[in-house]
C-alpha cells in the first residue's frame, strides 16, 4: 500500500498512506467543507409510530429475559445462531461490504448477508449503507444521522424516534449510490424488504425451534425472536453511541470515535471505532485481526473458501506513522 498522502480528513490534514484501489468509494471520506447553518435548529418532531414500536419491542425483550430459564438448550443455541447471522448481516454485509466496499463478495455470500441483514431488521441494505456513508462524510454534525454530540440517548436510539434533520436528508440525496443500485442482491432485498423481515426476523427464528424440537411458540417467539432482535439492535446502536463517547483515540485524537473493547465484543468487531473512522476502507476495522472481531474471522473464512476476495488492509508502517502524527499516545500496537 502506498504511503502517498491521498485522502482528506476532517481537520483538513492528509491521512498518511491511505491510498485506495480504484473500486473503493470516496463517499465515506469526511467532508470538512460542510458548515452547519446559522440560527435556531429545526424543531424536534417525534415519530410516534417508532416510539410505540420500540417500546413494545423492548417490553417483549424483557419478557424474553424472564422466560430464558424455561427455554431448552437447543433453543438457546438457536438464539445464538440467529444472533450471529443477523449481526453478520449488519457488520460483514451492510457495513463492511456495502457501505465501505472494503472487500468483494460472491453472489452466494451476498445473498446470505442480505438474508442476515433482513433478520437484523435495521432498514434494508440500500438505506443502511446510504445513512452510514452520510455518517462518515458528515460525522458529528447536523448532517450526521446519529450525531453523538447531541448526547448518548440521541446517538443510541433517539435518532430513530425523531424526524431526520433536513441536512441529513439533503446530503443523503447527493451521495453517489450507483454501486448499490447496480447490485441486484441489494435492490432485490430493497423491493421485498418487508416480506423478508417478516420471514427472516420473526417467522424463521420462531418456527424452527417450534417445529424441529417442540419448543413452545411463546418461548420461541420471545427468546430467539424478540430478545435476540433487541439485543442485536442495541449492540449495533452502541457503536453509534458508546463508541463515539467512551474510550481512547490512539489513531486520531481530533475526532470523537473511540476504541471501545466492550462494544467490539457485543458488536462482533465493530468497536474499534477510532481506527475505523481513521481508515474506513480497512475490511477489518481494526489493526488487531481476529481479536474481539468475529466479523473479520468470518470474512477471512469466506476468502479461504473462495467466496470473498480483495480485502483492503492498511500496512503496519502506515498505521504507526498515523499513530505518531495524530494519536493520543494510548497506542497498544504489538
UniProtKB/TrEMBL annotation:
<dbReference type="GO" id="GO:0032896">
    <property type="term" value="F:palmitoyl-CoA 9-desaturase activity"/>
</dbReference>
<dbReference type="Pfam" id="PF00487">
    <property type="entry name" value="FA_desaturase"/>
</dbReference>
<dbReference type="GO" id="GO:0006636">
    <property type="term" value="P:unsaturated fatty acid biosynthetic process"/>
</dbReference>
<comment type="similarity">
    <text>Belongs to the fatty acid desaturase type 1 family.</text>
</comment>
<keyword id="KW-0276">Fatty acid metabolism</keyword>
<protein>
    <recommendedName>
        <fullName>stearoyl-CoA 9-desaturase</fullName>
        <ecNumber>1.14.19.1</ecNumber>
    </recommendedName>
</protein>
<feature type="domain" description="Fatty acid desaturase">
    <location>
        <begin position="78"/>
        <end position="280"/>
    </location>
</feature>
<dbReference type="GO" id="GO:1903966">
    <property type="term" value="P:monounsaturated fatty acid biosynthetic process"/>
</dbReference>
<feature type="transmembrane region" description="Helical">
    <location>
        <begin position="46"/>
        <end position="68"/>
    </location>
</feature>
<keyword id="KW-0812">Transmembrane</keyword>
<keyword id="KW-1133">Transmembrane helix</keyword>
<keyword id="KW-0472">Membrane</keyword>
<keyword id="KW-0444">Lipid biosynthesis</keyword>
<dbReference type="InterPro" id="IPR005804">
    <property type="entry name" value="FA_desaturase_dom"/>
</dbReference>
<keyword id="KW-0479">Metal-binding</keyword>
<feature type="transmembrane region" description="Helical">
    <location>
        <begin position="74"/>
        <end position="94"/>
    </location>
</feature>
<dbReference type="GO" id="GO:0005789">
    <property type="term" value="C:endoplasmic reticulum membrane"/>
</dbReference>
<feature type="region of interest" description="Disordered">
    <location>
        <begin position="1"/>
        <end position="25"/>
    </location>
</feature>
<keyword id="KW-0275">Fatty acid biosynthesis</keyword>
<feature type="transmembrane region" description="Helical">
    <location>
        <begin position="193"/>
        <end position="213"/>
    </location>
</feature>
<feature type="compositionally biased region" description="Polar residues">
    <location>
        <begin position="13"/>
        <end position="25"/>
    </location>
</feature>
<feature type="transmembrane region" description="Helical">
    <location>
        <begin position="219"/>
        <end position="239"/>
    </location>
</feature>
<keyword id="KW-0256">Endoplasmic reticulum</keyword>
<dbReference type="GO" id="GO:0004768">
    <property type="term" value="F:stearoyl-CoA 9-desaturase activity"/>
</dbReference>
<dbReference type="InterPro" id="IPR015876">
    <property type="entry name" value="Acyl-CoA_DS"/>
</dbReference>
<keyword id="KW-0408">Iron</keyword>
<dbReference type="GO" id="GO:0070542">
    <property type="term" value="P:response to fatty acid"/>
</dbReference>
<dbReference type="GO" id="GO:0005506">
    <property type="term" value="F:iron ion binding"/>
</dbReference>
<keyword id="KW-0443">Lipid metabolism</keyword>
<dbReference type="InterPro" id="IPR001522">
    <property type="entry name" value="FADS-1_CS"/>
</dbReference>
<keyword id="KW-0560">Oxidoreductase</keyword>
Amino acid at each position: 500500500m502506498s504511503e502517498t498522502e491521498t485522502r482528506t480528513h476532517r481537520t483538513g490534514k492528509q491521512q498518511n498512506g491511505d491510498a485506495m484501489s480504484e473500486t473503493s468509494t470516496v463517499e465515506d471520506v469526511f467532508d470538512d467543507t460542510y458548515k452547519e447553518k446559522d440560527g435556531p435548529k429545526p424543531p424536534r418532531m417525534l415519530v410516534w409510530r417508532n416510539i410505540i414500536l420500540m417500546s413494545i419491542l423492548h417490553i417483549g425483550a424483557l419478557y424474553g429475559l424472564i422466560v430464558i430459564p424455561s427455554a431448552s438448550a437447543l433453543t438457546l443455541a438457536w438464539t445464538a445462531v440467529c444472533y450471529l447471522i443477523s449481526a453478520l448481516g449488519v457488520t460483514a454485509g451492510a457495513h463492511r461490504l456495502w457501505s465501505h466496499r472494503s472487500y468483494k463478495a460472491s453472489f452466494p455470500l451476498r445473498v446470505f448477508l442480505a438474508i442476515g441483514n433482513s433478520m437484523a431488521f435495521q432498514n434494508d441494505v440500500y438505506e443502511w449503507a446510504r445513512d452510514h456513508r452520510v455518517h462518515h462524510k458528515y460525522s458529528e454534525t447536523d448532517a450526521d444521522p446519529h450525531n453523538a454530540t447531541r448526547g448518548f440517548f440521541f446517538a443510541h436510539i433517539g435518532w430513530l424516534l425523531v424526524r431526520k434533520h433536513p441536512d441529513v436528508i439533503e446530503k443523503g440525496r447527493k451521495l453517489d449510490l450507483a454501486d448499490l443500485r447496480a447490485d441486484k442482491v441489494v435492490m432485490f432485498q430493497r423491493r421485498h424488504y418487508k416480506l423478508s423481515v417478516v420471514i427472516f426476523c420473526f417467522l424463521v427464528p420462531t418456527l424452527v425451534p417450534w417445529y424441529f424440537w417442540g419448543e413452545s411458540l411463546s418461548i420461541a417467539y420471545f427468546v430467539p425472536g424478540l430478545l435476540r432482535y433487541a439485543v442485536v439492535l442495541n449492540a449495533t446502536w452502541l457503536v453509534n453511541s458508546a463508541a463515539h463517547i467512551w474510550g481512547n483515540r490512539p489513531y486520531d485524537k481530533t475526532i470523537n470515535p473511540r476504541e471501545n473493547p466492550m462494544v467490539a465484543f457485543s458488536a462482533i468487531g465493530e468497536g474499534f471505532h477510532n481506527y475505523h473512522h481513521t481508515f474506513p476502507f480497512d475490511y477489518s476495522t481494526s489493526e488487531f485481526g481476529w481479536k474481539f472481531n468475529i466479523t473479520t474471522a468470518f470474512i477471512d473464512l469466506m476468502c479461504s473458501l473462495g467466496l470473498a476476495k480483495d480485502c483492503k488492509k492498511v500496512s503496519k508502517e502506515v498505521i504507526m506513522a498515523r499513530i505518531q502524527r495524530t494519536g493520543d499516545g494510548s497506542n497498544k500496537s504489538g
